[in-house]
Each structure stands twice: as C-alpha cells, then as structure tokens.
C-alpha cells in the first residue's frame, strides 16, 4: 500500500517541511551539534508506525543483504608494505556485516517515501549549511539498510561520502553502540591520531546509543567511527541516506564490491571521480 510521509515521520514534533520558528529552532540545534563534533541526533524522528513499517520492509528484503567476513583497514585499501608496520594503513581488523543495497527498496515503500518526502533533502542541507549538496548517485548505495547480527559489528573506518544521514530502525538485544572520533581527519589524514584511536588511547572518542526512530546526521568523511559488536538473535537495522558535494558521484569499484558483492557498469565508468584527495 502507498505510504504518506506524515504516517512515518513525526511531523508535528519535527516539522521539517514547514518553515517557521519550530523548524528554525531544530535546524539551529542540529547546526550547533554539527559544529561542535560533526554529529547530531534528532530523537524520535519517526512515529511508532514508521518504525514498524521500516522494520517490516527490512525484514522482507533481509535475504538480499550482502554478508561479508574479511579483514579491512580504516580506508578499505590493500596493505602497503612500504609503510612502517604500525601505520594505520597497515592495521587490519575483522569485519562481519551486511548491507541491503538500494535497488531492493521500492519507490513507493516506506524507506524511499521518507527519503522523497517534502522538505527532507532541504532540511538536511540547511542543517549541514552546504551550498554544494547532492544525493549520492550510486544506484546501489544512495539509500541502504545496514543489517547486523549476533557477533557482527563494523570496525573503525571513514566514509567515502561527505555527509551521511542514518535512521535507527531496530536494535539488537545488546551492543551496537556508535563510537566516533569527531573530525580528526578535517584538513589532513592525521595518521597519529588515527593510530591512537586504533590503540584505544585516544581521548577524542565519543559513544552514542541510538534508539529506533532516531535520525542522525554525521560527517563520516572526516570522523573515524565504528559500530561495536552485537549480542543476541535480533538483527540491528539502520537505514543510511548518503549525500555528497559533487553531482554524479558513485562508489569506487573495489569498495562497492566489498560492501555489496557486485558492481554495475556505472561504477567502472565513473571510477576515479572524487571530490577530494583523501584515502577512501
């Protein structure tokens, strides 16, 4: 059945579609949080019906998730023997996770109804204060669901895209906290601080527990982050909406294959098109 945005998003509490003092105050708070550490959370962004609809949709396509079990560094690159052994690019961690690619979510389903709702993109752009603001053009990754099960998690990494918007749908019984080191790569790679995070000696790491229905805006291109391992039989579902600074950007073929288990012709046609020179 078709969905209405108002049934899914708590627009009475969070009128992202309606200019006025309530929206202005919400944007101001989110901007302040983003200025402070590159991360902001809007609690109870979804209605209970919205949480239920997204959970049902994710359950229905959970078999389409690409599960991968491998070892990666924070940049998703290969080992570089020319660097010292303890360099962050040479430190690899077990990764066990699953992503449900974007092409599994119908245009009239609840996830894309939220993404396409009036004012959603404009609200995110206003919060980020970005003049250059585009939806990620990757047909496998513009809006996806991260699915994690017992024992899974996601080790320390940087995002390829500059702005990530996540929507918590369902938590596991235990674990799954979001840990991040705010903006440690803003300006340069900052390998020394990255190493301290990996060593567990950094004083910059923050821990955040998201509840179902919470909306998070995060500058993951610059902040090292991870999802702590989960415990229990219930899956953790988190929707991810991605935005970038340049039109037409898609994932690199190597990383796309790692995350989704397949590539499309567009990934090879646009390989190497980047908005910055950071290591992925």
TrEMBL record:
It comes from the Bacteria. InterPro entries: BesD/HalB-like (IPR056470), Oxoglu/Fe-dep_dioxygenase_dom (IPR005123). Residues 123-245 form the Fe2OG dioxygenase domain. SUPFAM superfamilies: Clavaminate synthase-like. Pfam families: HalD. Keywords: Iron, Metal-binding, Oxidoreductase. Belongs to the iron/ascorbate-dependent oxidoreductase family. This is Fe2OG dioxygenase domain-containing protein.
């Amino acid at each position: 059945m078709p969905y209405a945005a108002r049934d899914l998003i708590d627009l009475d509490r969070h009128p992202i579609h309606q200019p006025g003092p309530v929206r202005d105050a919400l944007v101001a708070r989110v901007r302040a949080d983003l200025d402070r550490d590159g991360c902001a959370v809007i609690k109870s962004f979804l209605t209970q019906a919205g949480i239920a609809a997204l959970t049902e949709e994710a359950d229905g396509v959970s078999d389409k998730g690409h599960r991968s079990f491998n070892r990666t560094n924070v940049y998703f690159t290969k080992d570089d023997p020319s660097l010292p052994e303890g360099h962050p690019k040479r430190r690899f961690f077990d990764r066990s996770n699953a992503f449900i690619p974007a092409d599994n979510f119908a245009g009239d389903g609840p996830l894309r109804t939220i993404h396409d709702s009036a004012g959603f993109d404009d609200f995110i752009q206003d919060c980020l204060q970005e003049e250059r603001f585009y939806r990620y053009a990757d047909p496998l990754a513009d809006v996806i669901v991260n699915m994690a099960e017992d024992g899974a998690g996601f080790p320390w990494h940087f995002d390829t895209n500059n702005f990530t918007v996540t929507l918590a749908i369902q938590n596991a019984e235990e674990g799954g906290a979001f840990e991040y080191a705010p903006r440690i790569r803003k300006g340069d790679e900052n390998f020394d601080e990255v190493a301290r995070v990996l060593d567990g000696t950094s004083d910059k790491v923050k821990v955040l527990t998201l509840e179902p229905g919470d909306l998070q805006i995060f500058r993951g291109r610059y902040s090292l982050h991870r999802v702590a391992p989960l415990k229990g039989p219930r899956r953790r579902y988190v929707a991810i909406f991605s935005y970038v600074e340049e039109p037409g950007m898609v994932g690199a073929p190597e990383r796309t294959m790692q995350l989704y288990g397949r590539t499309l012709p567009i990934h090879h046609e646009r390989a190497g098109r980047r908005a910055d020179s950071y290591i992925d």
